[in-house]
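Q: What would this chain look like folded?
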Amino acid sequence: MFEKKLTGYASIDKPQNKGAKFMEAHPIIPDINIYTAIKVISSFYRDEKAVDCLKLSATYQELLDDAVTVSMALKELGVRKGDIITVSMPNFYQAVAVFMAANRIGATTTFLNSFALDEEIISYLNLFESPVYINFNRSDEENQKIVDKTHVKYVVTLDKNKVNSLDLNGNYHLTKSNTIDYNTLGYLAKFQKKTLENPFNAYDDALILYTSGTTGKPKAVVLTNKNVLAAATYLKNSTHISDTRGEKSLVCVPFTYPYGFSTSTLMSLMCGRTAILAPDLTKDNLYYYLSKKPNIIFGSPALMELMMINAPTGFDLSSVKTFISGGDFLTPANAKSGKEFFEKHNAKTIITNGSGNAETVSCGTNSVGIEVKPDTVGRVLTGSNCLVIDIDEFNENGVIQEKKIGEEGLLLIGGKHVFKEYYKKPELTRKAKIIVNGKEYVATGMFGKLDNDGYFTLTGRQSRFYIISTLNKVYLDYVQGIISNFPCVKDCAVVKVATNDGNLSVNKAYIVLDESKMSNTENFSSQILDLCLNPVKLANGDTVQLKEYEIPTYIEFVNELPRKRGTEKVDYQFLEQKAADDLQKGQLQKVYKLELAK
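A: My prediction, written as structure tokens:
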């Protein structure tokens, strides 16, 4: 047998498939939905625990039973195939059950930030034309406003004090508010006959999750059943982990992000693990969740540092086999500190970096079950496609020039896990997807280089962000874009500032003012802060408002922003270093204090 001659190009040599069997490198993705896949895979361990959430837990059989019940209740409420169910709650078990239920009957689920403002929720509900909205913390007035201003027919809430209820005769009465207690869904399900649904709907939309653009609102990314199952298959073939049943995964990233729901939760359920959900993670309760003895932590550099800062003396972490840093890169130095920390707490933990984006179901590379290379974000998934291109040539002339293995450029990922579309954004979808030699790829936004084993070394990102201790992401370009819309702001640059007070990172805004448009000539910082705390109308007509954790902690007014020599780009690296130096010298004074949710 002749050995394949290597060309030096990843699109041809496929280094990510090195050592893989034929069916691993060319996998068949089943034509079923996610509900059916989990039902089939869990056939031999239905009594194993699937979800552990605070004081509530459910086995795989209980999760499947609840999915059937909720799906019938949704049908009784008029939900049809293709409808989008909008869920706004922390990482609760009920959110998982709703997704499984919607998926069973061919409906799509989207998760919104549970702390989002009413207007943001209403805008998404109208965008998706959701007939049912499920939440846990909205007042009667807020729920009524949602019914009045959207297509929502029924609001389902976990708060029993805000709902309609059964009378003494067991009859259910809807009032004008149309607000239903989640626990009453079991009663509504009785009006539907239990029917077998068609499981062979792999190309139906399953999830709408979110990514961030450099300006404006996060993009709504549509993922089909096939996309999610392909990601799961590629990951399984990449890790070569034979038996995961009985293991536990700690899920602390909000379900709004693919890393929180599709990667941490769904992939755990497809592997027979228990998903430990952390709906209200703070520095004060982190070790409550760790006391549940997870074997895998889906984390970030922020979570790692939070663990090290707040570790109780003598706390046993021996259960933790793997710590995965996703969404942000854990440097080799930080990984070394983390390894030493786990060793002090009786754990032989493998610390790895992974990478991905919403467009690839948050699965671009894998770093579990293979040799760890700390300077990389792992290996491109077995069975998927990849190449690195010259981004300057592509941007300037539209020419796709593939870089050789070992050369730096923009990483493109292809495969059946590449997203279907940005919801109702066909132009953006076409721009994100790139066809090379008849194969479809998505531009990942990550710059770096591939090696001969398929590992990717990350050198930069197109979008700038950081993750705070609650695992929410702060997109600096988004914050900057909103502040730049203030009438009194000529120019603005926002950078992150590392702290040591438990929040780990906050941000600082450098602002060029138009003083003629300020209300007075005193306390400019206070005036900017007032604008940050209120809704802002953007040039495109959208009304947005910064979330509490996005508001700059520090503000500095400058005459102009520094630019990189030879370009018109802002020198963010210089500003970030300046902010760090000023903080070290005690020259930064807070104008806003972030209070994390308790």
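The longest strand covers residues 439-450.
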